[in-house]
Amino acid sequence: MGKQPDFDAVVIGAGITGMYQLYKLREQGYSVKGIEAAPDVGGAWFWNRYPGCRVDSESHTYSYFWSPELLQKFNWTERFAGQPEVLSYLQTAADLMDVRKDYIFNQRVRHARWDDVNKFWVIQLEEGGSVPITARFLFSAMGPLSAPQMPNVPGVYTFEGPWYHTGRWPRDPNSNRGADLDFTGHRVAVIGTGASGVQVIQEMAKVAKDLYVFQRSPNWCNPLGNAPLSQEEMDEIKRNYKALNEFCDTTLSGFPHKWIDKHTLDVPAEEREATWEELYKGPGFRLWLGNYKDYLENPEANALVTDFVRRKIRERVKDPVTAEKLTPRDHGYGTRRVPMETKYYECYNQDNVHLIDLRETPIERIEPTGIRTSDGVLTEVDVIVYATGFYAIRGSLSRIEIYGKDGRSLNEVWREEGVSTYLGLMIDGFPNFFTLVGPQNGTVFCNIPRCSAVAIDWNTGLMQNVLDKGITTIEADPEAQDEWNRLCEELLAKGLIGKTNSWFTGVNKNVEGAQKREVLFYAGGIPEFKELCKEIQADNWRGFLFDGVPATKLNEPA
Ligand code: FAD
Ligand code: NAP
Predict the structure, then answer these.
(1) Which of 40, 169, 312, 467 has its CA 20 to 30 A from that of 218?
(2) Directed axis angle between helix 448-469 and helix 16-27, to 10°?
(3) What is the pTM of this model?
(4) Which residues share a beta bridge with 357?
(5) Is the pLDDT at 357 greater than 70, yes or no?
């Protein structure tokens, strides 16, 4: 054996996933170091501080269910908490796990290289100079939505007024909130109408003198149904956490919404309509994830729900031309993640809100004073808000380099061969490297804290096996990886989500090489994913190579 590494494990990221993974490894007796680009914990909730930012998961399900202590300690004050409260929850969790002491903050990992002689990772920090960190195992918890993406339109950095990306909103140094920016009386442009855009537009519409919404693709948005949570309601929730946990464990994505066990077309039209009316009111993803069980697979069923939501837009937006512009034409309801809103459509009934349909007049360029569209019009504004989203799922991995066993980088391998993983957790050729909530994982299409904890609890078993058997390297078996790819592909092909361009399917028009759909998540649902993982464990960790030997052969006599 060669040199010893500095640490048994390094975890990149101090969001909800990284903190828990680090904590579990430390509990197991691994020496561990965390590295986080931000000055503190929180991940997505540290960075996204734009006005209106809040969860679309019911707050009390957006939790670490593994900690009864934390469940009982924390009081949510809204059904769908705002960003400062979610961040406060994660800070409380960090205190409870006492993880901050193990993190290096304000440091970005630039690259990591597998040292095949010493069998460890050599991890280069942005500001580490010539001194890297070494670790036997490397865990990426860099986030599925943590690589903000600017629009690739000419002149984007020429604007002379202030501009902000929702995913990197300036922060108030003394609180969990965003900086105290006053948009009152300003001319504000928002580019993008995904979940972030919708939330920020609702707030800007209240204060801006003129709000110009630059919309390329409208989405099917639904009422969130937010409300304050009283102490009595919170006490009731606390009494029922066990039952809630058990229920969410049975749902597709860990949300408290379950399919109606009927096929859409088997239900009489009147009954369907009444059901959708009820679900549409919310709270949360009831219409999206609590609908008839076949509507995201059967195009005919999907067309009916889509028509229902289309009518809702027409009811809520007074001007029919504007309503039509706000109506998606390129995808059916639910096939992209549904932005949740509070009086979003009503904003367009206000005189100060102007919708610019980029399907008719694309942005030509950003100029020092505003945004010029293809009709030659320059919309002059004081502030630009980029709600243009993220290079999702694989973006954070793509922004660093991970060099595997044969010196090739993960970016190169995936560029040439396509994304491919085993369980969305390991990649052939990259020993001892684990991706959490990453490509092809079962935790991506999910209420993420619940689902990522499922995966981490399972990793803990895997890492215990490594510890118990004194194993130095663990790798994905290439055959098992191929099989996993095929399964992910088959599952995604079954539904309409897999046939739609969105961040779920890896399409990002701003990113070179991300124009085509990819198989980026396991679409079988979290209960099945959990079962599958259990079965793999019971089959002696099928599909992994331990010190180069297939796990299933380890116990065979020599
Ligand atoms: P993150 O929270 O993204 O944390 C990743 C961390 O890794 C970040 O702190 C980042 O700084 C760090 N990092 C990345 N690269 C590096 C590097 N090279 N070096 C060092 N550090 C690095 N999901 C839901 O289930 N429900 C919701 O209601 C919900 N709302 C959301 C709202 C917004 C505005 C956004 C952006 C996302 C939302 N999500 C929601 C998805 C969200 O990503 C997850 O819920 C969750 O935050 C993921 O946690 P994570 O720890 O895996 O990743
Ligand atoms: P997003 O869904 O990817 O939306 C980005 C928006 O920017 C899209 O409307 C996109 O249009 C537009 N856009 C991108 N590039 C553009 C360009 N060059 N010109 C014009 N328009 C451009 O990103 P997001 O809104 O940040 O949301 C991402 C995910 O984060 C959500 O789906 C959700 O999972 C999570 N999130 C959740 C919440 C919540 O409610 N809890 C809030 C925010 C985010 P096209 O569609 O045409 O590309």
Answers:
(1) 169
(2) 30
(3) 0.97
(4) 215
(5) yes
